[in-house]
Amino acid sequence: MTRYERLMRRLRSGAQIVIDGGTGTEAERRGVPVLENAWSGGGALSHPDIVREIHEDYIGHGAEIIISNTFSTARHTLGDSEVEHQFEQYNRRGVELACEARRAQQKPEVLVAGGISYWSFINKYPSLNILVHDIAEQAAIMADAGADLLMLEMMVDIDRMLVTLEAAQTSGLPVWVGFSCEPDTNGNMCLLNGEPLEDALASIGDKNVDVVNIMHTDIRYIDACLDITDEHWPGVVGVYAHSGKFVKPNWVFEGTISPAGYAAYCDRWLQRDVQIIGGCCGIRPDHIAMLSELV
Q1: pTM of the predicted model, to two decimals?
Q2: pLDDT at position 212, please?
């Protein structure tokens, strides 16, 4: 039985687990320079020791899944930063560093998730035909580098999400889907492009997805998202919210929530049967340490 199969057996039996916090923002906080138009994606090659250390810190604080620092290493994103020629190196090394951290911490049951997103920092997206090819290649690299599963992050529109999901699944790895949400002018909870969250959930109902995460979503909106997942998603639900804001080209940490404050929110979400809990941008290892005390 694989690590992933053992984890899913636990989750289907009702277990609750902790995952990591923000890796890109933590890399930035520790001094890793950002790539223009590709944010923290350069850390795997420019400062691998820091990226590995961040993964180790999250594992040491109880995270059972760590996500590679590859949120912004899609081919088109790296192209916007004029480093597309290093597409394979960034994605392969990003996953390898997470695997190395697992070995260093002597935690063989920790899962490494390859983080994949189609997000563009300059709102420049490839066609769906190009996207499906590029994501399939990215997913294959991550599978070959040792990822246990793939984590789709910041899925903000249904069409691109479905193409990304289809392409990622060609790797043979399990794929989880992470939606980023905010309310529309009527207060309905939607993906960032305005499509209703319930429509997004319905679109993947028959796509062999084990887990849906509400991620990179403001803490204030999580409960409303969970109201919708309660009604429209029969599978496992995870939450990893963010704190702070992005003011290009950097994450602004001023005013981010305290570890105790974030733990109080997470405790409430866990009481609502959320089974996977962690953090996104602005959430640090000390936040994850407090979550581990809850679970």
Answers
A1: 0.97
A2: 98
